[in-house]
Structure to design on (970 residues):
């Protein structure tokens, strides 16, 4: 009997339209299917119930655009979920009405993640986002009005045509709203997306400028009192946080290598050394669950050393020390020394013989390269 | 056969002037082969030679013409084999000098003509290809007569292709080339003018008997090297091998030695009988030393044993090829090989790649240097990485180059030779249109890209030949390339001080382009000793992270990381710096093209 899983991800794939840069599993429109989908989700939850703890630590509803789901269906989904300490829902600004905000609060959602991306109409239209800057602010206020005291904003930088001053403005605008949490992503031109087709060359050209942007984001947000607790994530800390730990507990669970169950199309679970991905096809998902069986899944068995490698890869994204004993045999000790000499990490041994390592500021900016170097 | 019935001769010609075609016609006309047996260019037996239009290994064919035994000795056709050519010529009393009526006299024609004159050979001038529409038989005959100091009227005008007047050439051979004049009764002496290796019969020596008689089963000795063996078989080619039991004074033929190593029987040595040895060896034996060196590395390090086997097999047939294992931190395990010259190097490389299917990385070639160290030791250096740090004096090999060009290209050729540290000796006009320029040049300036430059600056009209004339002191330095403070052995160069700055700059710039940015700043320097002549810095990466990584992305991100890791494994490690093999290739290409 393996330990019960305490982290649950729910995929709500529906969107009003697909943004050019997005490579998530999404379903455009299909309002007629929302109820059917929620039924299937709840059916899958029943099938997975045994592997879940009776009370969960975290639930995360991501998408797609979870808040695009028809309100009644969304409410049903939320009501059907187990109890959890942290329940996060992703939202697109244009979908957040005062009514929706109240609904979410009533149904036990504790944390909102709002996809702002930028505050400039020109750049938002490059991203094919529907919301304007005022929609972002309005959505934020609706959530605050409904009582949400833990709101995260997503920002994207490296948008084709974005100037350094544009980035500064976006950071200013985001900080002005005073969110508890910020996620800042460099725009990834993922292969095969419409966006890469249209803007790939421009993105290549600005690759060097992007190095600057990453440093700028980190410097600005840390200067504003945010903790850079993960490569792309920042949270309020100290007095402004009211002594709360405002990190995304759900995501921290991924980075610590904990098990999680994912429900919905394309959702991934990792339980007891086995990773599985549900079919991304809506019809197949619905039909199998309506027939009372598990949806089609891709299975990946993770070898012990693969799990350790992942643990290193994920753990080094965090600002907290990584315990070396958790990566026994997959870390190259000569590389450790070399990277320490380069000022990229600090390698410490406690009196009890326990060793840990922490990446320095520069080491974190180069975290991918450092990880590649460290792993044997 | 009586010596006054024997004529030994070579055909000497520039590449493509028709030497092989003439040889073929002679074999047909003398009924040595029937027309049906006739294979184009019969004497060139190796596939590679046929493709390149050159001949590496000499052979001798015996033909009969109007009661005379004529031995046609084929000569290697290129500058790198000058010594072998001179040995082949020494086996003859005369030479047919063939010039293309449309091309006129070329550098190799001149070089070989002088070589023949030095060997006291009777020269028989022939203008070939008179059937070509653009042929100028009269002008060419005048050039040829001027060159060898004769009368244009004595020049035979032929078409080897159609067979026109080839019989006149054979008549002239009998009439004008003197018969051999050895002592039939003296202790036997024979000059080894070539050898080859047969996997069943061992080393086969090609010999010209000067005195006495050799017999099958006789115990023989090579006088310079002291190698002894029993003559398993004696004979001649006509055109295939025919055993004859004896080889007598004046005759040309082969000796099957049973030796398993070509290096034990060197061209130029004298064979004699163990029972009745000659006192004095024939003159002119020289231990030929390689002049050009390069590192050969398998692109895939797993192929190292295959490369070693291939070199061993080539060596069986090529006594001039030398090699020793070399380890380079950048290129791994390979061999430092010595060659007679550039063409020899090209041939070896092509044979390795073609016959042995190897994928090779070849370092920029360098020459042999004679170094006097500060503590008075003399060393010969074949690899820039081995150049001692404390040097009193360095000498490098020099050549005497003759370059023949149409007069409008004299300027560009002089410019090129000056750029390459050439010293002008003199210039002569061969005709109103064409001149021969004589320059003395450091061999090192010629081994890299000289021939291509010469051709491109003269629209292909220049022809070029050279002789190594000895070693001379030069203001030479070793230029090292340092990546993050570590010297990269495979990239060290020995060059003239004046070009060190420019080459250093070019090397450093190229490496900066080719080496990916690392997690730290990487200085790339070119230095002479401790003095840095060029420097660039590959700035450290400032960002190397995957933007986001959540539950659904972990597998994909891990695979990205594994790919990054696999990419690193393919890199060569210079200190802490990962350098892609392509970077070395790009730099070696740069070195190969100045």
């Amino acid at each position: 009997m393996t330990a019960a899983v305490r982290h649950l991800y729910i995929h709500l794939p529906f969107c009003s339209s697909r943004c050019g840069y997005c490579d998530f599993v999404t379903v455009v429109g299909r309002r007629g299917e929302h109820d059917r989908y929620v039924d299937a989700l709840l059916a899958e939850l029943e099938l997975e119930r045994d592997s879940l703890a009776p009370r969960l630590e975290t639930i995360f509803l991501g998408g797609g655009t979870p808040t695009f789901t028809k309100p009644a269906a969304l409410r049903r989904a939320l009501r059907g979920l187990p109890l959890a300490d942290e329940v996060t829902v992703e939202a697109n600004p244009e979908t957040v009405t005062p009514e929706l905000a109240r609904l979410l609060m009533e149904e036990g959602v504790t944390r909102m993640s709002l996809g702002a991306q930028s505050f400039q109409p020109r750049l938002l239209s490059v991203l094919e986002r529907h919301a304007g800057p005022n929609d972002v602010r309005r959505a934020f206020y609706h959530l605050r009005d409904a009582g949400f005291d833990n709101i995260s904003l997503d920002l994207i930088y490296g948008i084709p045509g974005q100037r350094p001053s544009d980035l500064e403005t976006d950071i200013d605008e985001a900080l002005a709203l005073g969110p508890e949490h910020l996620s800042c992503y460099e725009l990834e031109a993922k292969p095969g997306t419409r966006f890469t087709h249209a803007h790939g060359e421009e993105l290549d050209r600005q690759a060097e400028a992007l190095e600057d942007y990453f440093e700028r984001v980190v410097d600005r947000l840390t200067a504003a009192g945010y903790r850079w607790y993960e490569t792309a994530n920042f949270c309020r800390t100290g007095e402004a946080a009211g002594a709360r730990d405002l990190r995304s507990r759900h995501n921290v669970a991924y980075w610590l290598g904990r098990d999680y169950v994912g429900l919905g199309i394309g959702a991934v679970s990792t339980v007891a050394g086995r990773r599985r991905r549900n079919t991304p096809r809506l019809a197949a998902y619905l039909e199998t669950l309506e027939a009372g069986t598990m949806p089609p899944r891709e299975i990946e068995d993770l070898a012990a050393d693969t799990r350790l490698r992942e643990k290193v890869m994920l753990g080094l994204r965090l600002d907290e020390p990584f315990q070396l004993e958790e990566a026994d045999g997959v870390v190259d000790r000569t590389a450790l020394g070399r990277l320490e000499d380069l000022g990229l990490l600090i390698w410490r041994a406690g009196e009890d013989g326990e060793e840990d390592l922490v990446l320095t500021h520069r080491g974190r900016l180069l975290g991918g390269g450092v990880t590649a170097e460290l792993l044997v | 056969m009586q010596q006054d019935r024997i004529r030994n001769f070579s055909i000497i010609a520039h590449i493509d002037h028709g030497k092989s075609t003439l040889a073929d016609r002679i074999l047909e006309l003398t009924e040595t082969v029937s027309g049906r047996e006739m294979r184009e260019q019969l004497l060139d037996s190796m596939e590679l030679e046929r493709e390149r239009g050159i001949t590496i290994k000499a052979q001798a064919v015996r033909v009969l013409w109007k009661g005379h035994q004529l031995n046609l000795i084929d000569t290697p056709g290129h500058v790198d084999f000058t010594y072998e050519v001179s040995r082949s010529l020494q086996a003859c009393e005369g030479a047919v000098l063939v010039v293309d009526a449309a091309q006129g006299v070329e550098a190799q024609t001149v070089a070989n003509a002088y070589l023949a004159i030095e060997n006291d050979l009777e020269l028989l001038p022939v203008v070939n290809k008179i059937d070509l529409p653009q042929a100028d038989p009269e002008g060419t005959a005048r050039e040829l007569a001027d060159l060898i100091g004769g009368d244009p009227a004595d020049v035979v005008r032929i078409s080897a292709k159609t067979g026109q007047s080839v019989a006149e050439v054979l008549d002239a051979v009998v009439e004008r080339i003197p018969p051999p004049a050895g002592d039939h009764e003296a202790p036997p002496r024979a000059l080894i003018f070539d050898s080859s290796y047969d996997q069943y019969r061992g080393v086969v020596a090609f010999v010209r008997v000067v005195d006495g008689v050799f017999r099958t089963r006789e115990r023989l000795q090579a006088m310079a090297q002291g190698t002894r063996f029993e003559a398993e078989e004696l004979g001649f080619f006509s055109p295939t091998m025919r055993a004859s039991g004896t080889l007598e004074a004046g005759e040309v033929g082969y000796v099957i030695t049973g030796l398993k190593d070509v290096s034990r029987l060197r061209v130029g040595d004298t064979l004699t009988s163990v029972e009745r040895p000659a006192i004095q060896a024939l003159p002119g034996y020289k231990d030929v030393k390689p002049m050009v060196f390069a590192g050969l590395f398998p692109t895939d390090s797993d192929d190292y044993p295959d490369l070693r086997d291939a070199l061993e097999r080539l060596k069986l047939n090529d006594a001039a090829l030398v090699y020793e294992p070399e380890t380079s931190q950048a290129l791994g395990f390979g061999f430092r090989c010595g060659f007679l010259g550039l063409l020899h190097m090209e041939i070896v490389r092509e044979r390795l790649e073609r016959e042995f299917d190897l994928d090779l990385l070849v370092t920029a070639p360098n020459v042999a240097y004679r170094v006097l160290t500060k503590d008075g030791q003399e060393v010969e250096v074949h690899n820039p990485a081995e150049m001692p740090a404390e040097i009193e004096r360095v000498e490098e090999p020099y050549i005497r180059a003759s370059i023949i060009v149409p007069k409008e290209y004299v300027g560009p050729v002089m410019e090129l030779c000056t750029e390459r540290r050439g010293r002008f000796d003199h210039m002569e006009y061969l005709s109103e249109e064409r001149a021969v320029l004589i320059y003395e040049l450091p061999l090192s300036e010629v081994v890299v890209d000289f021939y291509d430059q010469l051709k491109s600056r003269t629209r292909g009209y220049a022809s070029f030949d050279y002789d190594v004339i000895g070693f001379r002191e030069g203001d030479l330095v070793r230029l090292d390339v340092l990546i993050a403070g570590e010297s990269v052995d495979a990239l060290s160069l020995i060059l003239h001080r004046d070009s060190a700055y420019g080459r250093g700059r070019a090397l450093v710039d190229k490496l900066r382009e080719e080496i990916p940015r690392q997690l730290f700043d990487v200085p790339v320097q070119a230095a002479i000793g401790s003095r840095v002549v060029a420097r660039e810095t590959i700035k450290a990466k400032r960002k190397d992270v995957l933007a986001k990584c959540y539950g659904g992305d972990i597998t994909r991100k891990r695979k990205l990381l594994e790919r990054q890791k696999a990419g690193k494994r393919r890199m060569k490690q210079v200190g802490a710096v990962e350098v892609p093999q392509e970077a070395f290739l790009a730099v070696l290409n740069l070195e190969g093209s100045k």
Summary: Chain A has two domains: 7-254, 321-374. Chain A touches chain B through 46 residues (CB under 8 Å). The mean pLDDT of chain A is 93.
